[in-house]
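Contributing new records

If you add data, match the layout below exactly. Sequence lines come first and carry their own label; structure lines follow with theirs. Keep one chain per record. Anything else will be rejected by the validation script.
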Amino acid sequence: MTAIANTATDRGHSAIQMSLATLRQRLSERRRQRQLRQEYLAMLDLDDHILRDIGVTRGQVAWAAQMPLSQDAEAEIDHAVARNRVT
């Protein structure tokens, strides 16, 4: 094999490795988001005063639990809580 062929092959392997790493990262994030949704659903069983102590409303928790997995529910609820503190 020539040096050019080796370089092209190395680049091909590198691109595949990067694609696999990206896929693993996305799958991991999806699992994390799915777990968060389950935790938010479980939080709906808490009393309102406990949710208030945590700093969230029942509506915010229900909203976060229903978000698409492609969205970061944790970041969105953090932003909503921060907005509530300002107002």
